């Protein structure tokens, strides 16, 4: 695996505790977060459309039940 | 704040704003949000031209999933997005915002090659840091900008895993590095020799060889086109869009 990064490999491959975030999608957007009983709790929106970031339903911290 | 008012008295806000305009603005934003909810499609927003923005943050993640403490930009997300942007008749240009520490060589080069191969106007802006594989990504756009406070670290490539101590390993390293050197020199004003010199410079980094370039020096070396920030990058993107339309 060839890396071209200025970060020391101890930082990148540090096996600290933690889990990969779950991913979901809705209306052409990717989301990272966790699935709860009431829906998907958004921690990150991945979209190239700047208008998506103004959508209050896509804001990090929001629970959105439509994200699958 | 509790406001006590007599019956039939109307409340006048303490600031002399234009309430009609504010209501219009609110309605417009609500309309826009409703449209996004309904269609999930691109809206021109209030900008001059409909553009999309790709933010490249943290590590560029390639063939291997990195441990969860890393913030990553994944190529399986970015590549289809770039294809969709190039294909969409509604999107007129792309702004690439970089704040990355580098990452996987092949993933970074794949994204950079795709951006360089786009017909639509693309402008990049380096904020904070555009290190290592972030350099080819920054130069892949038609025009590149860097803020004065941003830095770019140029250094040799590294490999993770078991390495055989044979001359062929070093030849392979050199070939991998040459891919980056060639791409950067073909897409910016720096020569291959000068970029190699920056890569192998000694005396600047404490535990590594290489060079840290601040915004001004990145422009002087010819890697980045101009110093600037968001308004400069958007103005440049709009002018490239208008040139293409005329």
Indicate the topology.
The complex is a heterodimer of chains A (68) and B (246).
Chain A: E1 2-5, H1 9-12, E2 22-26, E3 29-36, E4 39-46, E5 63-64
Antiparallel strand pairs in A: 2-3, 3-4, 4-5
Chain B: H1 19-39, E1 51-61, E2 72-74, H2 75-87, E3 93-104, H3 105-116, E4 122-130, H4 134-139, E5 143-146, E6 151-154, E7 158-159, H5 167-187, H6 192-199, E8 211-214, H7 215-220, E9 226-227, H8 230-245
Helix pairs in contact in B: 2-3, 3-5
Short description:
Chain A has one helix at residues 9-12, and strands spanning 2-5, 22-26, 29-36, 39-46, 63-64. With 68 residues, chain A is mainly β. Chain B contains 8 helices and 9 strands.
Estimated structural class of chain A: mainly beta
Biggest sheet of chain A: strands, sense, closure?
4 strands, antiparallel
In whole angstroms, the N-to-C terminal distance of chain A is 32 Å
**Residue-averaged pLDDT of chain B, rounded?**
85
The termini of chain B sit apart by 55 Å
The low-confidence runs of chain B, each spanning 5 or more residues with pLDDT under 50, are: 1-22, 38-44
CATH architecture of chain B: Alpha-Beta Complex
Helix content of chain A: under 10%
SS-based class of chain B: alpha/beta
Strand content of chain A: 35-45%
CATH topology of chain B: 2-enoyl-CoA Hydratase, Chain A, domain 1
Query: What order do the helices and strands of chain B follow?
Result: HEEHEHEHEEEHHEHEH
Oligomer: heterodimer
- Spans of chain A of at least 5 consecutive residues whose pLDDT stays below 50 are none
Spatial strand order of the main sheet of chain A: 2-3-4-5
Q: Number of helix segments of chain B?
A: 8
Give the C-alpha Rg of chain A. 15 Å
CATH level 4 superfamily of chain B: 2-enoyl-CoA Hydratase, Chain A, domain 1
Q: Sheet with the most strands of chain B?
A: 6 strands, parallel
Task: Enumerate the strands of the largest sheet of chain B in spatial order, edge to edge or round the barrel.
Answer: 2-1-3-4-5-9
């Amino acid at each position: 695996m060839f890396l071209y990064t200025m970060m020391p490999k101890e930082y990148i491959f540090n096996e600290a505790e933690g889990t990969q975030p779950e991913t979901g999608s809705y209306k052409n957007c990717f989301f990272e977060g966790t699935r709860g009983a009431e829906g998907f709790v958004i921690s990150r929106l991945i979209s190239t459309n700047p208008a998506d970031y103004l959508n209050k339903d896509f804001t990090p911290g929001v629970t959105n039940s439509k994200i699958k | 704040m509790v406001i006590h008012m007599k019956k039939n008295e109307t409340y006048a806000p303490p600031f002399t704003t234009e309430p009609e305009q504010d209501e219009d603005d609110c309605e417009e934003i609500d309309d826009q949000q409703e449209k996004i909810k309904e269609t999930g499609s691109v809206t021109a927003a209030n900008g001059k031209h409909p553009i999309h923005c790709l933010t490249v943050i943290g590590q560029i993640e390639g063939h291997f999933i990195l441990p969860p403490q890393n913030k990553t930009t994944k190529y399986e997300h970015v590549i289809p997005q770039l294809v969709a942007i190039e294909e969409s008749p509604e999107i007129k240009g792309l702004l690439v915002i970089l704040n990355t520490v580098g990452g996987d060589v092949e993933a970074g080069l794949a994204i950079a090659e795709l951006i360089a191969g786009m017909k639509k106007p693309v402008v990049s802006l380096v904020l904070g840091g555009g290190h290592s594989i972030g350099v080819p990504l920054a130069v892949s756009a038609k025009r590149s900008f860097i803020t004065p406070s941003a830095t770019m670290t140029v250094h040799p490539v590294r490999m993770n895993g078991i390495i055989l101590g044979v001359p062929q390993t070093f030849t392979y390293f050199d070939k991998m590095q040459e891919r980056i050197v060639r791409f950067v020199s073909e897409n910016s004003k720096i020569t291959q020799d000068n970029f190699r010199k920056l890569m192998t410079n000694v005396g600047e980094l404490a535990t590594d060889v290489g060079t840290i370039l601040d915004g001004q020096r990145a422009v002087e070396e010819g890697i980045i086109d101009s110093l600037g920030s968001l308004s400069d990058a958007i103005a440049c993107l709009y002018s490239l869009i208008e040139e293409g339309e005329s």
